[in-house]
Amino acid sequence: MIDPHPPFGVAGRRLKVAYLVPPSLHFAGIERVTHDLASALAEQADVPADVTVLYFTDYSETREAPYRRIVMAGDRVRQVPRALHAVAARENFDVIVIPQFEIAILCLAYNRLHGRRDRIVLHLHGNPDIERATSVKARLLFTVFGLAPRLFAGIVAVSPTLARATERMLGGARVDYLPNPVRQLQPSVRTDDAATRARFVSIGRLARQKGHDIAIRAMRTVVDAHPEARLTILGEGEERLALEALIAQLDLAGHVHLQGVVADPTVALARAGTFVIASRWEGFGVVIVEALSAGLPVIAARCDFGPEDILTTPVLGTLVPPEDPAALAAAMIRRIDDPAPGRPDERIAHAARYARAAVVDEHARYLAYIVRA
Length: 373
Hints:
The protein is α/β, with parallel strands linked by helices.
């Protein structure tokens, strides 16, 4: 078990921590989580740390961050290991945390082949079963991962079910669960009448993973029962044209609105009565916690990893089978017809368990444990 009371720092000095953010043009899931976590470690952790985040994109959202930023050149996965190696050789970090298994494996291999033994922690955010099926290279890397998981200084997952599934995949190798830090949004006072309950909101990249097409198909049934129903989807991505075509095909113009990227979804959440997420897979589900922090009940697909770890009581929300527009529609119609169980403050209190101030010390103690191990 991790020592719950480690000494401050490491051997009387501050811990040197680096987080690597893979190349991406979007400041969204992994990017936002890493930024929030690094900010909290730099400002408020009970283990003193000098925190550096290695980016490949100069995100405007991070320019005033309390941690040190290094923006490296490169926009391809294959460029990441060499770039990390150059920085690590100069900085000599105590521990380097890398999300996404493919990049972590490549960085670990490059590190070892070039004579370094940096402590690298794999921080799992996604679905290993999905990731290893994407290509022959991915399957090969997962095979290597399965043979040598202990080459990593540690492996952590963002949800308990993801941690347990990864342990089974690795034949019992240790995988620790560390909760994601999630920003807490401003709750609003709303009436739980039928008109409010008929307004749904969803947040997520316009990508197949997020299942927006499932939610749109469900809306056809919901609108047939309740013509006043509306669904607003916040996000942008490669499936926008396909989703616009589906909205037109199902005659849902005026009922489903693709709003695009919104940095702060507080206003959209305040206007809605229910948050809906129909993902085909998740690692955690940050937007679920954000919706709860705004006081909203949630209807979510019980996909692999995440939603069922968060929505543990009916007060928080409803779980439906994944890939099932009919089941999702039935839950949405029930929500319009009946008030949500419990009070918004119960959902807000549950979300507060994931506030960065509530989880940062768990991450700090874990990293100190890894360095001392």
